[in-house]
Design goal:
alpha+beta, two-stranded antiparallel ribbon, Arc Repressor Mutant, subunit A, three-stranded antiparallel beta sheet, elongated, 14% strand, 2 domains, 144 residues
């Protein structure tokens, strides 16, 4: 299937078969539109990753800044093994990235997931930006 198509081609096809009285609609016939891809597996994969409440809660918690597994586990009241499992999946999905700070591995949102969460949260009426602190504040708190 074509990746783009002119509206005039669609109008002619629909008009020819009498499926729509589209010639009467105020459309720019010279406009070209992008056809959605047949394979939407990337979108489905991201939505599945976000569809699990624990993973989504982890992502929302990480909007506050980088955190280690132990703090994520404590705040969300989840087993550390489960949190690590979810973080591995989120890392493979490129929604989370990690950096090592001494003995700690800190997890943080990728730019991609931050934009995605902001977009999703903007669809809700409870949207508030998190108060963020930089990693150095965390370093001082845990004594790294």
């Amino acid at each position: 299937m074509k990746k783009t198509i002119k509206i005039s081609e669609i109008v002619e096809e629909l008009w020819r078969y009498g499926k729509c009285k589209i010639k009467e609609m105020p459309l720019d016939l010279n406009k070209t539109i992008k056809v959605p891809p047949e394979d939407v597996s990337e979108i489905i994969k991201v939505l599945k990753d976000l569809g699990d409440s624990s993973k989504l809660r982890i992502l929302l918690l990480l909007r506050n800044g980088p955190l280690p597994v132990c703090i994520i586990s404590y705040v969300l009241k989840l087993d550390q093994t489960l949190v690590s499992h979810h973080l591995n999946k989120l890392t493979r999905a490129e929604l989370v990235e990690s950096t090592r700070r001494g003995k700690f591995k800190l997890y943080n949102l990728t730019d991609r997931s931050r934009r995605l969460l902001d977009m999703l949260l903007s669809l809700t009426h409870h949207h508030r930006k998190p108060e963020t602190e930089d990693a150095s504040t965390f370093d001082q708190t845990v004594g790294i």
